[in-house]
Amino acid sequence: MDIAFLGLGSMGLPMARNLLKAGHRLKVWNRSADKARALEAEGATAVGHPKQAVSPGGVAITMLSDDAALEAVALGANGFVPALGKGLHISMSTVSPELNRRLAKSQHAVGGALVAAPVFGRPDAAAAAKLNIPCSGSEAARARALPILATLGQRVQSFGEDPGAANVVKLNGNFLLLAATQAMAETLAVAQAAGLERRDVMDFFTSTTFACPAYLVYGGRLADEDYSAGGFKLSLAAKDLRLFSALAGGHNLPLRGLLEQRFQEAMDSGLGDQDVTALAQTLPRK
Amino acid sequence: MDIAFLGLGSMGLPMARNLLKAGHRLKVWNRSADKARALEAEGATAVGHPKQAVSPGGVAITMLSDDAALEAVALGANGFVPALGKGLHISMSTVSPELNRRLAKSQHAVGGALVAAPVFGRPDAAAAAKLNIPCSGSEAARARALPILATLGQRVQSFGEDPGAANVVKLNGNFLLLAATQAMAETLAVAQAAGLERRDVMDFFTSTTFACPAYLVYGGRLADEDYSAGGFKLSLAAKDLRLFSALAGGHNLPLRGLLEQRFQEAMDSGLGDQDVTALAQTLPRK
């Protein structure tokens, strides 16, 4: 299949690679062109702007960092939406549900469709094609997207027709993850102060009641105090939390408020480029 | 082996049953005597006060609701510590690390030892002998306790010599659990307000990033809004949180503070006898 892949960041790049490996023909675009050119050695065709990547009636996948980037790529000066026409836009970025609803309308206006399919998993899960993917959009569009999503992930679950729904799920999941990160950071501080080894305590939890990727991956980093970049950037987590808060709207949820404060503090402390687990570094000292 | 089992609540009763099934001879005591008598049909001997259950040099297991109950049973008027003498006290209640350290000293003073071995798991896990058990105490005492603990649980992990250590782990684990409960309650409120089914969202999370008992069990109840009693009583969770806070001491941990407030509110709303997930009912309405 001919696929346009737009956005080759730490997630997009391994995802595009898996599509190439599966035999698809890719036209790729990235804001900084060097990443797109690097993929040419693996069989992709690099193009100069988003519109050049798509063909009428074809498939375009977007994997960008935030609402502004996605909106520019889709509807900006060289935006691909008109050129994609009757085609399918698979929107995989972690963005607001509202933006996906708007882009679905824009694509629909030119005869096409949008499936929202944000992903759970860090870059290593993307490389291993083990992403978990909630998706939503019209039934026909989802049916067309499914084989592509199955190439990228290990589980795809549909959340119905609303093109905003999948991103509601994604933002909720990230909220759970950030809450767990804060909880683990506090727990490990208390355990360490009581004379226990952080690793021993986390290993026990992740072998029993909390034996799941969220605690294994983020708890592992927290246990080892490894806050280096390479996974889920703190600044992106802060962005996701703002989107969750916008979604929650007038709903006064106490933990949401606390996490907003905590992430603001972490950003103000200059931790934005580190891993999200660097949140632990802003805990008040005993 | 002859074992004294003290405390036949919703956790103690199925645990005592598993020891009987494994062929041990049990003398059992409970504050309300009917539960002890009920176990006589299964081969146990019911006694009138804690001291009568133990024999010098033997093994005593305690599974009581809080510090006050355990202290009374161990050191009160008919407390068992002197009568147990050179024996082994396996202290399985969720109590303060400090109390276990004190009881270890008392037992040591008469030639015996204490192993702290609090448990993770709800009554159904206790019945299935699938508890997860952190333990701590002197090496010899742990070696003696191990076969008994292996009869009650699926995983036993040692945390060294300090008889307080295992309860530090237990209180930390419950803190993680209560934080996850609050996070799931907020998430599901937002998802529902956005038009999604609570069950669909939770099923996705518990099949992927959060596929572990904490989220499956507590998330399942929250998804279904089933706050009925029978699992982990909210008033006991509030007690555990107070113990965690005492442990954290001067450490100003923001999520701990928030959960303390939330549980106080839930207790004030008369939810103490419901399941811990009833915490969701005190979320501010949109």
**Rg of chain A, please?**
20 Å
- Encode the helix/strand succession of chain A as letters: EHEHEHEHHEHEHEHEHHHHH
Percentage of residues in helical conformation of chain A: 40-55%
Mean pLDDT over all positions of chain A: 96
How would you classify the quaternary structure? homodimer
Number of domains of chain A: 2
How many strands appear in the DSSP assignment of chain A? 8
**How many angstroms does the end-to-end distance of chain A come to?**
58 Å
Named CATH architecture of the largest domain in chain A: 3-Layer(aba) Sandwich
User: Would you tell me the structural class of the helices and strands of chain A?
Assistant: alpha/beta
What does this 3D model show about the protein?
Two copies of one chain form a homodimer. With 286 residues, chain A is an alpha/beta fold. Chain A has two domains: 160 residues, NAD(P)-binding Rossmann-like Domain (Rossmann fold, 3-Layer(aba) Sandwich); 115 residues, N-(1-d-carboxylethyl)-l-norvaline Dehydrogenase, domain 2 (Orthogonal Bundle). Chain A contains 13 helices and eight strands. Chain A has a six-stranded parallel sheet, with helices on both faces. In chain A, strands 7-8 form a two-stranded parallel ribbon. In chain A, strand 5, helix 6 and strand 6 form a beta-alpha-beta unit. In chain A, helix 12 runs antiparallel to helix 13. The first copy, chain A, is globular. The mean pLDDT of chain A is 96. At the A-B interface, helix 9, helix 10, helix 11, helix 12 and helix 13 of A face helix 9, helix 10, helix 11, helix 12 and helix 13 of B.
